[in-house]
Design brief:
Two copies of one chain form a homodimer. Helices cover about 55% and strands about 15% of the residues of chain A. Chain A is an alpha/beta fold and about 325 residues long. In chain A, strand 2, helix 5 and strand 3 form a beta-alpha-beta unit.
């Protein structure tokens, strides 16, 4: 009998899906398998895609997946969906997006919900990416609504980050550029058949110029019409160009190292939170301290110090 | 000589600003003062305001501040601004927003930047709110672009949460409702003179109906035109209604308790991160483990376990 890790390494989709479920549920067998698989990671090229709601990101990603499949590459997609409290959000989205690739073993799609899971988002994303990497996916796309710092950070740990903008954003470009500009390796100007596309390109170019020649890579602006597929071949080429540039300048290794350190910190945060949750449930002393804070009897800072001392992480 | 905490308690603006700076810089004297001030907190009513970029939130908050000032209330405003990497964002915004209230001792505005400060956002916000509370502000507004989970969580810890929407959002309403619907105590339909206002109200009402009668409070929809001030008196009344409802049903104490527990958890996370940063700098064993992860020699999960074990010993 092959172990779960071995089956994932062999590219078995059902084993990968099972492992992701175990990780979601926080089952320790899942983390053991992930640890066993870690040496098999590092081969995939990871592409982050972010943009505001309505920018056509998802359609664009679907088109990119098609181009990569045509070029003989396997593709994993991690779609980070804000969950609607009423529709069941991510799970539904997962099913819909899976359907069109159902017959294609070269594509693996996974949606993650962000709701009520502060911090957990980064952890799950990194773990899911690691599983897809270990199962042999050539390209992995992390797609997110790039508006929160958490989401921006995740996309920023990809090897190549795309920021999707659309014409006529007006003031919104001011809000969007916050934090996102720094991570953009490629700007995608989607809905390029809409009015105001030239002005939008000028605005983006002005932002790029202001940012200076970061690292020696000047982010290109690629126009696309995701709904018809126009420009998507160019976009795939631009991604290849950037990946090649990373390789040739030795920056690829830098990005991988940085992502690994982020991963450790995330794993540490996660372990700390789980330990804390367990302590609150199991250690009456700690539960009592939290109660004292809840009632206002003690201030939160003193309680945090006392809890930390109890946990002996102080 | 009065201590810093005493001066803040006396309502001294310069002392409050100084304390906020100390907290920003992580100076321990700041945390000592905050601890000393904690018994003086809990009197302010905290109002969260969130909405997408371009919804007119800031103008609306300025109008609300005016109404409250007219009613003899003092007001603190914590504005969470996405920082532009080029303009220096928050600090600039702070100065501009301060200017119009410069002569008014009853208003204290503080802008916080979100950039590159994952997790730190919640901490700073809570601490700044605590300082404003201790200095005697009657109302404290937390204003944020409510798109990331982190931002939503912060607004959700307010006593009364306003969600600002505008007509003609189309598909965006789908994205906006994620996570935000649950926290809305009052919906503000701003730019109510724009086309599509009736349709937007119907959509919001449909969402509210779907959500059921949460807790016995049905969120009202208040139309406003922030630019002219129309509807803002109604909005201030709706906020009062909600605060009264919280008091009368005993839910106010529930919200306060919940916020205090959040505050403890945030303080714990923050301490853990600082402890970790210190350990990476000062303990060669831990730095070595992180290096082993960065080079790919060891997997991040094992390294996280090992670092946590080291931290517990140390």
């Amino acid at each position: 009998m092959a172990t779960l890790a071995q089956r994932v390494r062999g590219g078995e989709r059902r084993a990968a899906a099972r492992l992701m479920r175990l990780l979601d549920d926080g089952v320790s067998a899942g983390f053991d398998a992930l640890r066993e698989l870690y040496p098999d990671t590092g081969r995939a090229r990871i592409v982050g895609v972010t943009g505001s709601p309505g920018s056509g990101k998802s359609t664009l990603v679907d088109q990119l997946v098609r181009v990569w499949r045509d070029r003989g590459l396997t593709v994993g997609v991690v779609a980070i969906d804000p969950t609607s409290p009423f529709s069941g959000g991510a799970i539904l989205g997962d099913r819909i997006r899976m359907r069109q690739h159902e017959a294609d073993d070269g594509v693996f799609v996974r949606s993650l919900a962000t709701r009520g899971n502060l911090g957990g988002l980064s952890r799950s994303t990194r773990d899911v990416v690691a599983v897809m990497d270990a199962m042999g996916m050539d390209r992995i796309v992390i797609e997110t609504v790039g508006v929160g710092q958490d989401e921006v950070d995740i996309v920023g740990t990809a090897h190549t980050s795309l920021v999707v903008l659309v014409p006529g954003m007006g003031d919104d470009i001011q809000a969007i550029k916050a934090g996102i500009l720094e991570i953009a390796d490629i700007f995608v100007l989607n809905k390029a058949d809409h009015e105001g596309v030239d002005r939008a390109e000028r605005e983006i170019r002005a932002m790029i110029e202001l940012g200076g020649d970061l690292d020696g890579w000047k982010p290109p602006i690629v126009r696309t019409i995701a709904s018809s597929g126009e420009g998507v071949l160019n976009l795939a080429d631009a991604v290849d160009d950037h990946l090649r540039w990373l390789d040739e300048t030795g920056r690829f290794e830098d990005r991988v190292r940085r992502a690994r350190v982020h991963h450790v910190r995330q794993a540490l945060r996660d372990r700390f939170e789980r330990r804390l949750d367990r302590a609150i449930t199991e250690q009456t002393g700690i539960a009592g301290l939290i109660d004292a804070a809840a009632s206002g009897e003690q201030d939160p800072y003193s309680v945090a110090d006392a809890v930390l001392a109890e946990l002996s992480v102080g």
